[in-house]
Amino acid sequence: MEKLIGNKTKANVAVFISGRGSNLKSLIKYSKSKNSLFKIKLVISNKSNAAGLKYAIKSKIKFYVIKYKNVINSEKKILKLLKKFSIGLICLAGFMRILSKNFIKKFNKTILNIHPSLLPKYKGLDTHSRVLKNKDKYSGSTVHLVTPKLDAGKIILQKKIKVSKSDNIKTLEKKILKIEHKIYSEAIFKFLSNL
Predict the structure, then answer these.
(1) Residues 16 and 91 sit within 8 Å (Cβ to Cβ)
(2) What are the Cα distances from residue 21, in Å, to 15, 45, 48, 179, 193?
(3) Which residue is catalytic, options 115, 128, 144, 181?
(4) Residue 137 gets which letter from DSSP?
């Protein structure tokens, strides 16, 4: 933790990614603003070709690729890194691995995730196709606490958008991604403000 923001301390954050890292990009941008209550100290990816790693490189943030050939060993490595960088909060941003019950227990601090649906609806994968198939009028995004039960933790922030008749998976994903970039930072701010 670093002293900053009046009497608040800035939380050291680790962001976990697997792909393009657009949420990581928006979190990095927000973390540099004067209202931010957090600093991204570490980026973890399970894929060496994750496009999002370029944002860590560009912002000189330490990053590590943990290949997950063996879950127990991989999680041990990650826990060591989290300790080394004094991480107080993990933000999952398109991380395509499920953290084990053991990992969550051992980290013993807050883990947040952003999910592209209005939880508790459509947990897991293929959210947009399920929304369209069921002809839902609304969809959206949810930032929630991570628990051992998939996409079932307490909701921190949720925002909905209208699904239009002309939407397909691509257009709906694009709309939701736009709000994800906004609400993830807001949710972290809301969560850290209430500590």
Answers:
(1) yes
(2) 10, 10, 13, 15, 25
(3) 115
(4) S
As a whole number of angstroms, the distance between CA 79 and CA 72 comes to 11
- DSSP class of residue 190 equals H
pLDDT the model gives residue 9: 77
Helical packing angle, 22-31 and 169-193, nearest 10°: 30
Whole-number Cα distances in Å, 195 to 30, 72, 164, 185, 188: 19, 31, 38, 16, 11
Judged against a pLDDT cut of 50, whether residue 4 lies above it is answered with no
pTM for this model (two decimals)? 0.94
Contact 22, 90 (CB under 8 A): no
Q: Which two tokens stand for residue 19?
A: 């792909």
Write down the architecture of domain 2-193 according to CATH.
3-Layer(aba) Sandwich (3.40)
144 is catalytic: no
**Which segments of 53-147 does DSSP mark as H helices, in order?**
53-58, 71-84, 101-107, 127-133
